[in-house]
Amino acid sequence: MALNLCEEILTGKFSQTTSKNQILQINELFFKNLERSSISSKFQLNFKNSKSGEDRIGLFSEYFPTSSEFLNIYHPQVLDYKKNATISSTLREKSNEAFKIREFRQALHGYNLALCFAPEGSQEMGLIYGNRSAVFLELNKRSYLERCFKDIDLALRNQYSEKLKQKLEQRRSKCSRKMELLLSIPDQRMISSPNCLEIDEYKENVLFKLQSPNPLISAAEDFVQISKHPVRGRELLVTKDVPPGTPLVVDKPFVHVLKNVLQWDVQHCHHCLKEIMDGIPCPECVFAMYCSEKCQKESFEKFHRYECPCWGYLHLNHAPRYVLLTLRLICILQPLGVTKLFNKREIFDASAEGNIYESESYKTIYQLVSHENDHDDVENFSNTMQSLILVSLLEHVSTFFRELDLEITNSANFRPWLTSIILHHLQNLPCNSISLDELSVPSTKTEDFSINAESIKKAQLEQYASGVYTTISLINHSCDPNVKRFNDSINHGRMCIISLRGIKRGETLYTSYTKSIQDSLQERQKYLRDNYYFQCSCQPCAENWPLLPTLFTKIDQKPRFRCQVCSQGILRKEYCGSCKKRRTSQSKLVMEYDQNIQQFYKSYDLVLQNDPMEAIKILIPVLKYFQSNIVQPFGKTYMAQDTLKRALDLIVYFPNNYSSL
Q: Cβ(576)–Cβ(565) under 8 Å?
C-alpha cells in the first residue's frame, strides 16, 4: 500500500486507491435519500423551476448525507494523506537512489515530497534536510550553496542523528570553501544580460508600479475608467490616448491557488507563488510547501489553518481549481469576516456611482459576474452539491465553525446563508479566474544555465496557478486584443496590464480569453460560449479574419496603406477610396514602410540577443507606424506584437530562468 501511495505522490496523480470517486458516492447517497422520500418527480420539477441558488440549496439540503454519513465516505482512505514517517522514509530512499546516479532534479523533487510527509520536528525530517543539502553542494553555484547552508541548519534543528553530525559539519566546511571560490567569479546573470540592473529597475518601477494612481480605482492608472456597456456589462476604458507598451493596471489577486495544489506541487511556494527548490513543508498537512518560514506562518495565519484539514478530502474528491479557489476565499474572510457579513446581510453594489473600486475589498469580488442564469442543469446540480460539501468540510473537518460564535452557528439561517455565498462563488470564480504563467525554458543537459537565441525562441509560457483579480476581471474579450497580461511570479501573483498597440481616448480595453486568432472561428466561438456564456462579435469574428499561422506564412504580404487624411479609406492608385483625396506618393510610402520593417527585424534580433530593453525602444514607433498606416490584419503587425510580448516576457519572467537546473 505504501509503495502504491508513493508512486501516486511521485507522479502527482489523483488517488486511484478507491473503486469510486467520493463525489460519486455522495451523489449516490443523496439520490438514495431522495428515493426514500418518494418525491423524486416533485424534486426534479422543483429543481428545474428553481430560480436561484438559494432555492436549490433549500431543495438539496434535506437529502444531503448527514455528517456521519459524509465523513464515513472518506474513511479510512483520507488517513493516507496524513504525516507518515514510513511513507516519508520510502520517498527519501528513492531520492537517494536518484542522487547516486546524479539525477539531481529527480532527487530534489523526491526529497521535497518526503518532507511533505515527514512528521514535524522528527528525525526523519532532519535526515531529509541533510540529504537535500548534499544535492545543493553538488550543484556548485552560489544560490545553491546558500541553500546548502540553510538545509544543514534545518537538519540540525530537527533531531539530526548524532552519528552523522560530523559528516554534516564537514559538508558545511566544504560548502564554505566552494563559496569562497565562486565569490571571485562574476555573476552569470551579469554575463548573460549586462543590463540586468536596468531590467530590474524597469520591471519594479515602470511595469509593476502605478505612475499616477487612480483615486477611484485602486489598481489602475488615473486615465483608466470603469464604464458600463448595455451588453458587455462593466468594462475598462482609457480617458486619453496611450501608446504601445504602456502599463495600465497593476493588480494583486484577491485569492489564488496553484494549478496542482493537491497533486504535490513542491516547486512553488503555496503562499507567495515563488518558484522554489528548497521548500519548507506545512507542519500539519502533506500538500503545502513554502519558500520560507515567514510565508509558512503568514499563510497559516491568513487562511491555510482552515483549509489545511480539508485538503485530503478534496484530494480524494479530485476537486477542480474553482472549488479550491472558493474554499480559500471563504478561509481568507475568516470566521470574523464571515460573521460581519452575516450580521450585515446586504449585497454590496461595487459599481455604485461615486464608490471607490478597491481591488482588495470583498464587495468587488462578490459583484463579479456569475452567469447564474446561463448554467445548465448539470452545472447547477454539480455546483449545489459542491457548495454543500464545502460547508460540511468547514463544519465537521476544519476549525472554521468552531471559531464562530455559538449565537451564529445556532442560527437556523446561518448554514443556508453561508452555503449560498459559497455557491455564488462557485458560479462567479470560474469565469473570472485568470491564468498565472511562468516562462519555461527548454532544459539542457548541462548544469550551467545560459539564455541564448535558441532558448528564447523555444521558451513557452506555462500555467502554474490561477488567481482572481477584481480589476483585471473587468477587462472584456476580443480576438484581437489591445492589451496583454503579465504576472510577477515572485510576488504573490502580482499582475500588470500592458498595451500592445496605441489605444485611443474612450477606447475599451480588451484582452483575449482564447488563443486569439490562432484558433479557428468555430473553435473560438465554442470555447467562449461554453466557458464565458457569450457569442463573440469582435472584428476578427465578424469579418472572419485569416488565422495568425496564415498571416505569418505570408512573408511577402503586400501592405494596404491607410489614408492619412480620413484614416478610414484604403489607398488605391492615386486617390483614397473613401475621401477621394490624393494620396502620398507611392515611392515615399514604400520607403517609409521598408524603414519600419528594418527596425522591426533589428528589434527582433535584439530580443534574441537578450536585450529586451533596447528592443522595446525600437518596437514602440514601429507598432505605432503599423497601426496608423497599414490596414489590418497584417502579418508583420502581429509579428511585432509578438516580439514586444517576448521582450516583456524576458523582463517579467527573467529571474525564473536562473532557478532552473
A: yes
Q: Give strand pairing partners of 411.
A: none
Tell me which H or E stretch contains 26.
Answer: helix 22-36
- Cα separation of 167 and 156, whole Å? 12
How distant, in Å, are the alpha carbons of 116, 265, 438, 629 from that of 274? 18, 12, 10, 43
Residue 338 CA to residue 343 CA, distance in Å, equals 9
Matching residue, cell 486617390 = 575
pTM to 2 decimal places: 0.93
Q: What is residue 446's predicted lDDT score, i.e. its pLDDT?
A: 37
Spatial distance between the Cα atoms of 469 and 360, rounded to a whole number of angstroms: 9
509-to-248, 249, 473, 485, 501 alpha-carbon distances in Å: 10, 11, 11, 12, 11
Q: What average pLDDT does this structure show over 240-264?
A: 96
- What average pLDDT does this structure show over 96-111? 96
| Residue 585, CA distances (Å) to 563, 572, 588, 599 in order | 12, 11, 5, 22
Question: Which pairing describes strands 575-576 and 289-290: parallel, antiparallel, or unpaired?
Answer: unpaired
For the purposes of burial, counting CB atoms within 10 Å of the CB of 585, is it exposed (0-12), middle (13-18) or buried (19 or more)?
exposed
CA within 13 Å, CB half, 534: 16
Instruction: Please report, rounded to a whole number, the percentage of residues in the chain having pLDDT higher than 90.
Output: 71
Longest CA pairwise span in the chain (Å) = 92
- What letter would DSSP give residue 535? -
Contact (Cβ atoms closer than 8 angstroms) between residue 117 and residue 286: yes
Q: What is the mean pLDDT of residues 50-65?
A: 91
> Which cell is 375 given?
448554467
Q: What is the mean pLDDT of the chain?
A: 89
117-135: per-residue pLDDT in tens?
Answer: 999 999 999 999 999 999 9
**Distance between start and end Cα atoms, the chain:** 33
Cα separation, 606 vs 643, whole angstroms: 10
**Chain segment 162-176, per-residue pLDDT in tens:** 888 999 999 999 999
- State the DSSP H helix or E strand holding residue 572, giving kind and residue range, or none if neither: strand 571-572
- Burial class, 46, CB count within 10 angstroms (exposed 0-12 / middle 13-18 / buried 19+): middle
Span 56-68, average pLDDT:
93
pLDDT value of position 44: 85
Q: What is the mean pLDDT of residues 80-100?
A: 96
Q: Which residue has the cell 517579467?
A: 652
Confidence of residue 615 (pLDDT cuts 50, 70, 90): very high
Exposure of 235 in the CB half-sphere (CA atoms within 13 A): 17
> Residue 367: CB partners within 8 Å, gap ≥ 6?
348, 349, 350, 351
